[in-house]
Amino acid sequence: MPEGPDSADNRPDERAGERVGERVGTLRICFVSSEAEKAQQALGALKSQYHGVETPEEADVVVALGGDGFMLHTLRALIGTGKPIYGMNRGTVGFLMNEYRTGGLEERLASAQALKLYPLRMRATRVDGTIEEAIAINEVSVFRETRQAAKIDIRVDGVARLNGLVCDGALVATPAGSTAYNLSAHGPIVPLGAGVLALTPISAFRPRRWRGALLPQSAHVDFEIRNTQKRPVSAVADSTEVRDVRHVSIHEDRGIAATIMFDPEHNLEERILKEQFAA
């Protein structure tokens, strides 16, 4: 498949690993962890073995200990700073994490591949007219709040594409997030270099046969909520929820990026590919 104009930005950056490797022995590492007991124990073990710095601002690399939820939190917190984040799994699934080992950390960081992730930017307008913005590494979703199904009009780049979608909700997912909630909602897995976003309905009732769409990464998506009093809807950007919305706009923000690092043998591109062949 021909490469998109920005597909190279979504590939592992071996040079980033080489730059880190030049400083083996003097690498400034900041360890951060979730509140989970396993993560806290790992934090203590690594801090006793390696000399770390106290804050991400002082660090060359941030090592995050926890699960995927904590990794997403860390990526959002450090997005735009240029600080690479290397995760080790002390949670459940750990799709965005590397294997947890205490030994050889500096060597692993030296050979790790860096990947830039561009977030989705959500602008949600509430029924009362107030506006809230948030970013998402995985997806932006809208959900019904009550027993009443949501009724949503969908526009892409200002063009009406689907009017009156009756559903539990809908979402827009990045390639990195396409294996998360998007996959559970029967959306497509999107390779990192594909240059597209996934637009996926959640339990669509009408039209029954609509399964979503693949959109160019430059697309601007608008969800217009109908009958907001009878059919209230929430908007969620990863973990940021805005209730009682009437309009949600979503686009990929290529002005900022989060940098995540993986061991070469378990990079994110390979993990997403494997998911397409999982039983």
From TrEMBL:
Stored InterPro entries: ATP-NAD_kinase_N (IPR017438), ATP-NAD_kinase_PpnK-typ_C (IPR017437), NAD/diacylglycerol_kinase_sf (IPR016064), NADK (IPR002504)
Compositional bias ranges of the Basic and acidic residues kind: 8-20
BP terms from Gene Ontology: NAD+ metabolic process; NADP+ biosynthetic process
Entry annotation: catalytic residues: 68 (proton acceptor)
Primary localization class, coarse: cytoplasm
Localization in the cell: Cytoplasm
Keyword ATP-binding among record annotations: yes
Name of the protein described by the UniProt record: NAD kinase
Gene label: nadK
